[in-house]
Amino acid sequence: MRCLLPRAKSAWRRRDRKGGRPMLEERACFEAVLWYLSRRGPWRKLPGRFGSARTIQRRIMAWRLQGTLDALWQRYLEQRTVEDRQAWRRALTPDRGDRRRQWYWEMLGLVRACSRDDR
User: Fold this and answer.
1) Nearest to 36 by CA among 59, 61, 23, 53
2) What is the pTM for the complete model shown?
3) Strand locations in 9-118, DSSP E?
4) 107 in helix, strand or coil?
5) Mind listing the pLDDT tens digit for each residue in 25-59?
6) At what angle do helices 53-66 and 68-78 cross, to 10 degrees?
7) With DSSP H G I counted as helix, E B as strand and the rest as coil, what are the percentages for the chain, rounded to 5?
8) Long-range contact list for 19-24, CB < 8 A, 24+ apart?
9) If DSSP codes are grouped into helix, strand and coil, which group holds residue 58?
10) More confident residue, 27 or 91
11) 26 and 6 in contact (C-beta within 8 Å)?
12) Band of the pLDDT at 13, cuts 50, 70, 90?
């Protein structure tokens, strides 16, 4: 998974700082995405250990534009067992009138594609 993520920037130093906090690690962001997908709750319920929900949402959009999000999700699913992939498929099955962002539906499409291969 690490090879799919962009290289970490050099150590955060005061003279390089333009303001704000250091970037949240990519792994923590991806774990936050997994938390969100598995809980199906609102972003405001995201535990503090993952950072702010807005930070995660911005990272999702950046990864989506780079094509990294699909690759990360695909790699993650490939490393799961058949039962885990089926559990993800059930967890991501939409409720009636479920309004989600486009990336959510793309994740569901990838897990469905993997599930078809499991049959």
Assistant:
1) 53
2) 0.70
3) none
4) helix
5) 888 889 998 898 888 778 889 998 888 999 888 89
6) 90
7) 65, 0, 35
8) 24/51, 24/55, 24/56, 24/59
9) helix
10) 27
11) yes
12) low
